[in-house]
From TrEMBL:
It comes from Streptomyces desertarenae. Residues 2-50 form the BFD-like [2Fe-2S]-binding domain. It comes from the Bacteria. This is Bacterioferritin-associated ferredoxin. Residues 68-77 have a biased composition (Pro residues).
Amino acid sequence: MYVCSCFGVTEEQIREHAAAGACTPRRIASASRAGTDCGSCVRRIQGLLGRGGCPRREAAARSAGTPPQVPGVPGPSAPGAASPASPAVPAPAPAAAVPAAWPGRSVAA
């Protein structure tokens, strides 16, 4: 079935590109041009890629003996290593002061 009708890209082609390491819609677009014209197929591409990891990245991690890294999730730290401190949340900025009178106008009392 066609995923991108603008460039005639099929589900099978998307899966082949993903298996070759194109694990994001942007990488799929670089490999096949799918999603670069009207953009209506990008959500379908995201659905085909799913939330699973990249097969090529997972295979490399298995051969290196490390668990696959999930984007946005910190990996396990080395035994005895200190855990990083959580980032400080900045305080909200104070509201901008409103001038008593706009330039060129006087304030009527």
